[in-house]
Structure formats: C-alpha cells, structure tokens
Amino acid sequence: MNSNRKWIIGYSIAVLILFITYQFLLPWEGLPSWIYDGVYRWMPPMTVNECLVYVIMALGLNIVVGYAGLLDLGYVAFWAIGGYCAGWFMSGFLYFIKFHLFTSVPATDAGIHINFWAVLPIGGLICAIAGILIGAPTLRLRSDYLAIVTLGFGEIIPQIFFNGENFFGFNISNGTKGIVVVDPIPIPSKNLGPFDYGFKLLIFVALAAIMAFISLRLRRGRLGRAWLAIREDELAAGMMGVPLMRTKLASYAVGAFSGGVGGVAFATHVNGVYAERFSFTISIFLLAMVVLGGMGNVWGVILGAFILSWVNGNGLVALGETVNGRLGTNIDFASFTFLLFGMVLILMMLFRREGLVPESRLKMVLHEGDDEDAKKGSR
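The structure assignment produced for this chain is given below.
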C-alpha cells in the first residue's frame, strides 16, 4: 500500500505540473520564448495527451498479457472497434438516422450524436462483447498458437474497416477516407474541441486512473489470483479448480473494454477515425510498453507506455532537431523508431526481463535459480 501511495503521489504531481503548464503558463504573454519553444519541442500537449491514450490501452493489454499470461498480438482490433464506436455514435456519419442523446450538437444535425460520457462505456462494452466472441474459439489454444490466432484477428478486423466503404453493400467506415470530425467533449463550462489540450489532459488522466484502479482491485481479488495462477502454471491451476476458459475470457473481456475506452478517447483526441492508424505495429508497440514497464505491474506499465509513446510521438523528432541543429547534419531520427524499439526489447530480455518496475512475484519467478547458477559458475 505504501508503494502504491508513492506512485500515486508522484504521478499526481506530474499531472498537476503539466496541467498548469498547458492551461496557464503557455498562454501567458510574459513567458520567455525559450521556455515556450522548449516545452513545445520536447513535451507538446498533443503528444502528452496521445501518451495518456496509450497508457489506457497498455493497462488493458497488461491484464491479458501481464496478469493472465496470454500472448495477444491482435489487441489493436479492440482499439479500432472503440474508435469506430465514437465515429458511429458521435458524428454525422450515419446521416440517414437522426438521434440525439444528452449532446450539445444542434438538434437539426443528422446522424447519431450521443454524449461522449455515454459513448465511453458503450464502446467499452461493445469491445468486451467482441473480446468474448473472439476469445471463445481462440483461448482454448496456448502459447505460440494463441499468438498466431490473435494476430490473425488483429489483421482481419482493421482490414474490414479499411475496406469498409462497401461491406456487403453497407458503408461502415468510409474506407480510407475515414470518419472526419467527431462531436466535442461536453463539460459544464464548455465543449472541448480538438485544441483544448489542458482539460483533455485531465479527462484522459481520469480515464487512465480509473483503469489503473480497476486493474489494482482485480489484481487483489479472487479473479486476479486466478489469472496469476494460470500465468504461472495453467495445468496446475486447472487441477486446483480454477475454471480456465471462463477465467481467460474474463481477462480478454476486461482488456478489450479498456481498449474500447482508449479507442473512443483517441477518436476525440485526433477529431476523427482513420483506418490506417490501426495497423499490426500498434499491437507490437503496446506489447513493448508492457514488457518495458514490467508485466503485471500497473505503475510500471504506465511508465513504460508513457516513455515509448513519447519517444514515438515526439521524442526522436525533438532529439533529431537538436542534434542536426548543433552538428549541421540531416539525419532522420524518426525513421529509426522501430529499430530503437527492437533494441530495447532485446536488451530488456537479456538484462532485465522483469521490466523497469517489476512485479515482485514475476521477478521472483524469472530469477529463480540465479543464485544457484552463480554458485556453480564460481566453483
């Protein structure tokens, strides 16, 4: 509990500093230009908000991979479904329907316009149902076979949306053109548009905090202990009476719910839904976040997700601008993003398999026998 309190205080201070910076400091006319330029070069608000969306999704994948030990290479499918839920229920895309529910959009606007706060659980529940439907036939498999099948689903669903302009005669996604412009996020004082980064920061932080709280509560409960038992030894867990299929489906459904919430949040962040964003590389990207931070450790996953998404979103670009400006070179640092991620994964597997902030149980399992090996090597 003391460890959790320290992480909560640390993350809260960081969020408070960012909110004050984006909402009050940057708009201040008396702010020195070097501070303004430095913030927008290294920590632009749009990149930070995108990092928080990735945190939400990484927390969901951590339940599947970190808690239950199920290697899922198709998690991007749930992100895509959640994003298109926002596109369907928060825009004029379905123009032949006129339905408004607790929204500030003019009543004359065509389409389905449901309040953002209602679409969040709707998108999550639709993804949870999709997770159960996908998991029912696939979770009977193990290890590499499960990874291959989830990879297949992770490719199929985004491709359906990518070619969804004529899906059995229906336009479900607008194809490569995407669904442009979703409804703003309503709050008591105003409607948050694409550039209201400060208040969106608080909203995305709140969503990430809720998912972290759910993860921690589940981890300590009976279901969480069942997930850990399956992760450690599925055969032994089954012999001890753990309902394997039902427990696995629960992890898949909860993880998918988080992916759906992240998809809805991302659609409001970029003000649209675009099929090309939901590629296989996102699934690997999210998996790298979980591995880097520490599988099974909520605070480590948050840290790993923020670091990698910042590097991918702005870190390498800012580093390239700085290095090229000082050395007079013209190196495209951003093109080395996935090379860097690959090197990080290799180094983590070689020297710190448990991640930056390891879960105590997983750390003990991974390093079991290290002392004996060291003694044998010293003889």
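Interim note for the steering committee: The domain at 2-378 is CATH 1.10.3470 (ABC transporter involved in vitamin B12 uptake, BtuC). Residues 298-327 form the longest helix (30 residues).
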